[in-house]
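Q: I'm teaching a short session on how sequence maps to structure, and I want students to see two examples side by side rather than one. Could you give me a first protein with its sequence written out and its structure tokens following it? Keep the formatting plain so it prints cleanly on a handout.
A: Of course. Example one:
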Amino acid sequence: MNKVFKDYLFTKHILVSEKGEDTNAFETLFAIANMFNIRVKKGQALAEREMIEYISGMIGKIVPEPFYKGFPESVKKLSTDKLIFDQMVHYAVTYGFGNFSEAGHSLFEEQFERTAFKENAEIKDFSILNIKDAEDVLKTSVKDMFLSTRPLNPVQYNMLSEYIDNYGFKPETCASKNLALRLLAEKRDGYYVKFISLSDVTKLAEEINYRIYQNKDINNLNLKNRDRKLIASVLDMIFYGFQFESDKSKQYKQIRDCFERKAVWSGLLHHIHYIPKNDYGTEFVKLMRGKENHSVYSAFEKAMKLGYIEDAANILKTGKGSGAVLRNLDYLISRCANEEDIKKVLDQISTQNVMILIQLLIKYSATTRVKAYRAFSFTKYEKLRVHVETKEELARRRTFLDKATSDKLKVFIKKELEKVLKNRLGKVYIDDNMKNIALPVQETASSGGFGVLAKGSRLHIDDFKKIRAFTYWEKVNDIDLSCFGLTDDGRRIEFSWRTMAGLQSDAIVYSGDQTSGYKGGSEYFDIDLLKFKNKYPDVKYVIFCNNVFSPLKFCDCFCKAGYMIRDVEDSGQIFEPKTVATSFIINSDSTFAYLFGLDLEKNDLIWLNMNRDSSAHVAGETPLAFLIDQFFVTDVINVKSFFEMMASNVVNDIKEANVIVSDTVNESELSDGCRLIRSYDFEKMTALMG
């Protein structure tokens, strides 16, 4: 089976057997359990010896040693002077002399003998499937991806793209315009035209411009002839379809939507030398090149400037749907003169769009909605973009919603969501710990891999455990792991290669800034939560980051990151696969990624997992405070509350359930027709949100 498929299934805790039953299955199962703490609960007889090496590659068995071989104990014994001198000598050899031929180690570190591994590590439950059953799982996942309105992350898209190529799959529906456009741009298959509208064609040009030519500027097109022919043929197909469209209002809406990017359209039509093939195309080209603008948003803005707020909301609803009213709710509500005006705006909203309602519920529940510098974040091309409001922008801003208004909107949105979701499912069994798992609302900019959860998901860390964050790399000189402590008033403490010589302690220990030899390099941080809280009482949150220090991007090298949950007094090797809770590849077209955070008040690890659209090569030069809202997502809505809204009845016995939401229930326990959804089943959840 294609490795892309096997790697994807591994993230679902599935191993694939390509041989069938193996006479050495028992020995293989024992080795997998002993080395990785993986327990196979289904398909034991299908265990193959090759799976040991495969799992090693996925979790990380052979990882380069850090700078301090005796980390963390040996590091604590070194003085600040020795730590600084070690670092200076190491930098002189690597960057000064350009010697990356072998990994460097400490000059002062004493010999350190490790005890055998004896920690209690969490067991990971897996299944082994034959190829046919594995293909059935893949097909179901691909169908769910096409049902989702959300853009896919790189791992999901690569799997879906490979599946289409290998199996010739043609979806019956594609709910995400983003996905349809990307497939159209990369596969150049006219089949996907039926999933887009006329106004999406400029976005198709953007996709081609970026994916093929790495150009983000739609106003600076330099497409080749084959690209021009593709876009022209897409336009011809859409205008040809107009001839058979009985509802003329749909044609009008498609054309009217194009006025919002009239200048872009004019430039694109000129660039591709478009010659219409029928009267619909001819009329459209004439409109895009004319002087009039019939944009919905143009009419909306005119009504807003005149103070006709109810009319403005109605223009949006009629021309773009209730979703557009919801997206502009801040703008509309902030211009309302009284409660009656607010009610009139809200009366315009009646939507089945679950995703918009969830996003707004999270937005109006945020703790940072104050008259201060705001950070706006969004994703494009699988990367997070952040803009922090300037002083001038703050002075010009007129859209302020006080807490009382935000709370009222939150209540309204939640009621709408409950109304839309009510009785979508039958009897549902839900594990209580699913209240700590966030919904995969915006995972486009995330890295995929083993143990990855949705942004905002929480994992409680017991007092006798500590977090060991790690990163390791190949094909690049240096990647840096760093973390930042944040206080309630916005101050931060940097823990990185630049600062750690003076900050090493029992609370936080750093493995040294290892640059790579031929086998690569690695870095680690240990944080003992109890000791950290005592040493830094003002710090409420910790955020871990990864950045490429060398002049490359993550996609140009090999980089894995993750964390282990270790005993405070740990044993065994620095990198112990048994204790790895997550290990994922960062391969984005950027130099910076947010990994995860710590909520020190609750002893929880918080998933962040965002690839930042950034060229920063040193941590500490980018904003962090906007990430704090992610720490409280599960307080607003979570997997448990989401499925409670959809259930006709929440049951306590799995035998009664039509749907089971649990990480502990085994597939062999399911009754016929019962669906199982785990915390990492993003595709199943987003399909339900579609």
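Q: Perfect. Now a second example for contrast.
A: Example two:
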Amino acid sequence: MLRVGLLFLLLSTTSLTVRAQHIDSTETPVDAFVDDVDTATATGEAIAERLIELQARPVDVNAATASELTAIPGLSLLLARRIVRHRSRRGRFSSPSDLLTVEGIDPQQYRRLRPFITTSHVVPKRPDAPTRPEPWSAAVRDAEIRTAYRWTRRLDLGRGYRPDSARTGYQGGPARHTSRAEITLGERLLAAAALDKDPGEAWRWDMTDRAPGFDHVAGTLAITDVGPISSIIIGDYTVSAGHGVALWRGPAFGKGRNAVDGILRDGRGIAPFASTEENRFFRGLALRIGTERWLQDRTWMPVASISSFISRRRLDASIDDRTDPLEPPWTNLSNTGLHRTPTERANRDAVTESVAGTLIKLEGKRWSVGGAALASTVDRRRVPRNRPSDAFDHAGRHLRIASLHAIVDAGPSILSGEIARGPGGSLAAVGGFAYQGANRVDLALHARHYAPEYDNRFGFGFSETAPQNETGLYLAARVRVHDHWSVIGYVDQYRFPWLRYNMPRPTTGRDVRLIVEHAPRPWLKHYVQLRTETKDQRIDGHTGPSPLATDGVAPETRSSVRWDVDYAWSDRLRLGTRLESVIAIPPGGSDTDRDKAHGTLLVQDVEWDVFERVRLIGRVALFETDGYEARLFAYERGPRYAFRVPALFGRGERSYLVLRAELTEHLLLEAKYAVTRYDDRVRIGSGRDEYVGNRVREVDLQLHWRFP
């Protein structure tokens, strides 16, 4: 703790003496959206990839619909509809900065949106008429090719990579290989592919076993404006509708520092997919037909669209051959995407899933209504595991889902909701309200209910865990106290009406967060965050009289305070400092020092443009906690598309250095070296990843090529 305190004092003194100029950073602000993700989940990686893709292909605010605009991080559904309404009344935006004329968009919010937006150069004769399709000749002239190759390796390996006579260890090498390729012809055509081999997976070049070298292959071909068809996608794609209660495949933003804007959703329909995320996508054919271009002389009429899709792909699943040796069923799907060991490889592609679905939407200037329906069939029947928490999980081969969703735009406020019918007639519903007026106060309210029987693997609605067996109420507010001061906060109260895994009775939870942001200068901004989470957990060692004993659960509380500052020392040097402290009280513990687990984290970041085309990004993080219960997290920068939020606990330090060098106008090299050292242990990790030593080193290399 002494060294943490001394370094904090030094860095604080340095930050107070800073005098700097404004730096126009184009770095994608991933940390604002994934900084609180506990582990490097597939969802978090998909969010990081989505932000990078948005920056590479910004959204055209002169042509995008309100639902397409909501895919931009930090842009609420209410503001997205205001942008569309402003465009309809006053004509198209001549430049991105014209968004400042839209009610509710201030300079600070515009700076957050700027990396993800652009304005088209095609201006129709009438200001309120839709943009005509880009001619193919112009699209070919705008052709662009992007490729990337990434190699990642942990240098200090666990015992899973040692020679194993029983062949129970990892079957492949420790490096991760990822390749990406993308060809675009303006706005008319996109062809993209992503290939990925995780650490521990073996190279297998057997096409009969669906193994083309890389363990995961995704590819898509998307074409827009093909006769009456607005868009058609062949290959891999995602589908999102409404609030995501019935259908949402792809990334979604939830609770975080941006507490107000991302809560109400409006799915953007079908979208091409070429990502390393191995689960949340469809594979087949999808198309959309819309009336936007057919109503050029009748803009008062609502816009109608219909999207249909079919998909067939193989899924990883756990097979239970003890129940029926002749036709063994599956118990649950595997979402890790890892195929390193014989057991993981046996679960690979164990189930074949066929899906067909339709989306319908009718949208006016102040309202929209829509519906989604899908039918899924798998070639093996499902038998849920025999445990109380799985009592309501869907069994069988067939799954049918249908939903209705609506939005009512009332100017300074907006109402939205969705209701869905799932397996066995089970119901799920969400409703939301948002307000943003001229009084510097923004509000958001979201209510949700997912029945215990609502077992829908295609949904991804706003929830604390999976959108099943949960009822909750979320309230958020943002107050712009001054031009440079904002106060943001939310309260999320939820309940699980049936048993969760390893819980002997229904449980409850509460999440409260308060953030005070201050940006006194263009080169200086900081915030203070207070957060407390309380969730019922099982008491270790409890031996109640029955599985439903009411005294086997007690609240677990985790409270934290964070101060984060970002400041520019000069045009080429940017610094950032974070100090965070956490206190964790275990289930059944009391508010005494004997039961509390404390943790402290100090992070110092440096971003230095050494030369015009060379940038260095570094970090030193010191942490000291009483155990895993007081773990701390901090999103790490790295090569593009990389995602890392390590859990830091114990006593030690983690540091890394990232090099970004533009070798030529078209070639970019990125390299990262990271090391974690512990002062309180001689073994790191567990299971096959256990390593004997007190440090872990990692290397990450990535090469990008773009033409022209």
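Q: What should students look for in example two?
A: Point them to this: The two ends are 52 Å apart (CA to CA). Also worth mentioning: The chain has a mean pLDDT of 85.
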